[in-house]
Task: inverse folding
């Protein structure tokens, strides 16, 4: 991923916090939400691992591609469409981290010439890494996750009037606990947007 190192560390913290919460929720939450919370937690921890700003081993991108690709296919088979899109997007980003490196290796002569040309007038065009991925697919994923974050974020806004009274009658603690898991989903969606933009 491109971008400042501090953005990577923020994504690591976001993913680790969301993942830890979701996994705790999977053990102690309602039975109907345990499987979903477990999937969210594993995705969040995977996002934290992918965003780690320290240079990873060369094989890690292939490992991420295989793990998230398998998770995406599993989610698709179990009809968890959002999890499938998220896991396959992570696999796509991991694969995109590999492709620019191989492209640069294949065009080493051109890169060397361009770098030499750039030395005369300051930083050349190759001072930044080549963006990875297919622009159209990256754009579609950006649109999807932007829509998801906005729609899920709107659902987090507290109800007003009679609906708020019903929620208070049910207990503020239960309402607060139920709202944290959707908030984690929104945070993870924002993290996906940040990772796609930094691709």
Result:
């Amino acid at each position: 991923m491109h971008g400042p190192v501090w953005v990577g560390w923020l994504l690591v913290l976001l993913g680790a916090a969301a993942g830890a919460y979701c996994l705790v929720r999977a053990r102690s939450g309602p039975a109907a939400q345990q499987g979903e919370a477990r999937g969210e937690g594993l995705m969040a921890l995977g996002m934290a691992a992918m965003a780690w700003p320290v240079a990873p081993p060369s094989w890690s991108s292939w490992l991420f591609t295989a793990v998230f690709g398998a998770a995406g296919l599993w989610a698709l088979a179990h009809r968890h469409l959002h999890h499938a899109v998220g896991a396959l997007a992570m696999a796509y980003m991991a694969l995109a981290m590999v492709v620019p490196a191989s492209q640069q290796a294949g065009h080493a002569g051109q890169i060397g010439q361009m770098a030499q040309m750039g030395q005369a007038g300051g930083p050349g065009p190759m001072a930044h890494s080549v963006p990875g991925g297919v622009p159209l697919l990256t754009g579609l994923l950006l649109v999807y996750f932007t829509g998801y974050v906005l729609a899920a974020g709107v659902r987090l806004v507290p109800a007003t009037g009679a609906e708020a009274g019903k929620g208070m009658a049910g207990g503020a603690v239960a309402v607060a606990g139920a709202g944290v898991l959707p908030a984690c989903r929104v945070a993870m969606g924002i993290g996906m947007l940040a990772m796609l933009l930094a691709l």
